Amino acid sequence: MELKQLEYFVAVADHKSITKGAASLYVSQPTISQQIKLLEEELGHPLFIRHAQGVELTDDGATLLRYALRVLQNVDDAKAEIQGAASSHGTIAIGVLPTLTRSILPTVIRQYQRIHKDIQFAVTEGSSQRLLKSITAGDLHLALVDLPLSDPLLAVETLWTEELILITPHAMPMPPGPLSLEQVRHLPFITMEPGYGLRDALFRMAQARGFNPHIVHELTSIGAIIGFVEHGFGISVVPERTVELEIQSRRIGFVRLAQSNTRDIGMIWRAHRRLPDPVQTFLAFLRTYGWQSK
């Protein structure tokens, strides 16, 4: 059993596809297929179930994955220690939802850099699904996403809970809140495109009240949602702190919602792999940050 075989095996397990695993490592599909076959022959057990959509780990494959991740992490840790990679300097690659880029993350980063002046950040904005894939592929150290989220390859910690409100065109007459979402089921909704947790939250809330929202626009930024609501194209459900300025400036109206009107935000990273020292220090900062008071 060789390290390269374990790297190939983990890539296929991450992507649930031999083709995608090979592409992520810039090697040919036959090369990975041959190495996986050699691993299975050496262990005497199949590691994957092959099907038309890709591959799935067998029970034996899941066992090997746990050990393979530890082995590869130990190798990375040894390289880091010998080469002196552990330091207070560096760049932290962090992914974030569009709803958190307007004020929350910039504020956090600026406050952190006042203390740790040598740390830089590479920020990637995307949907929860995209950020999850980037974490498992090793492209990001951390990501701030909406929860719940369950994946054996990920470590997950909840950071804060935020209130979701209904935003409307400013001139639209609405009954005083708290308002049940069912009372506006007849109105057109604007939300994020599939893959974004905010859209999932809207559908969870609506389906709990026995209906699916009528979606007229699916967008990729919170700014676009605000613009379409402001110009009368529909209503939307968004985090309150994301639209505080627009509410104060009377660009849009809002109504508070009754029942199950919150979502959890948390941080995720690749489980079973040691994070670089600068990332661990930033994680500790995030855990003690006064989220609910911001």
Automatic annotation (TrEMBL):
Domain HTH lysR-type: 1-58
Gene Ontology MF term list: DNA binding; DNA-binding transcription factor activity
UniProt superkingdom: Bacteria
GO cellular component terms, semicolon-separated: protein-DNA complex
Alphabetical list of InterPro entries matching this protein: LysR_HTH_N, LysR_subst-bd, WH-like_DNA-bd_sf, WH_DNA-bd_sf
The entry's keywords: DNA-binding, Transcription, Transcription regulation
UniProt keyword Transcription regulation, yes or no: yes
DNA-binding recorded as keyword: yes
Matches recorded under CDD domains: PBP2_LTTR_substrate (cd05466)
Family of this protein: Belongs to the LysR transcriptional regulatory family.
Name of this protein: DNA-binding transcriptional regulator, LysR family
